[in-house]
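Sharing a chain and its predicted structure for anyone who wants a worked example. Both blocks are below, sequence first, tokens second.
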Amino acid sequence: MKNLFALVVVLAAINAKPLEARWLPEVVDNFDVNLYLGRWYEVASTKPVFQNNCLCTTADYTINENGNVGVFNSCRLGAFYGPVNNVRGEAVQSRRNPAKLRVGFGGLDLPFNNYWVVDLADDYRYAVVSSAFRNPIFILSRTPEIAEDDLNGILQRLEERNFNVDNILPTQQPGCSYPPFNGDQ
């Protein structure tokens, strides 16, 4: 009986998927940070509290002198020409998986990867960012508007992968006035 129990435990361990494969969301393969650099427009998100009253939201990515990714997030508060609210940060790519990054803002440096690229167009025209917790969710596009087919495909894939898409709301972009992006932000 003892040997049978040991055999069952060994077989279960061999067949078991790692924790990450069972519960944590998968990230994209072959993520190239150099193709990811530049301006992204948030076209939809779960509207986390730190983006309260934001519209015209953008994220600009550059490579810093130290090799890490410079992050400059910006939005307008309350109106298309409302006051600009921005924050500067830095992202460090995971050595094991470059599509998982640890982003810190203004001295807040988290001890874990909190920026996971979970969906990405082959030509980098859109990207979806979340975390190990599948929340928040940000749908980004290289243009202020995203093609309806792309958005529908993203939402379907997210739902199939157990993301809650019910709380994803569009971000107002048409008619916005954006701060310039010069790569140095």
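Comments welcome. The domain at 26-170 is CATH 2.40.128.20 (Lipocalin).
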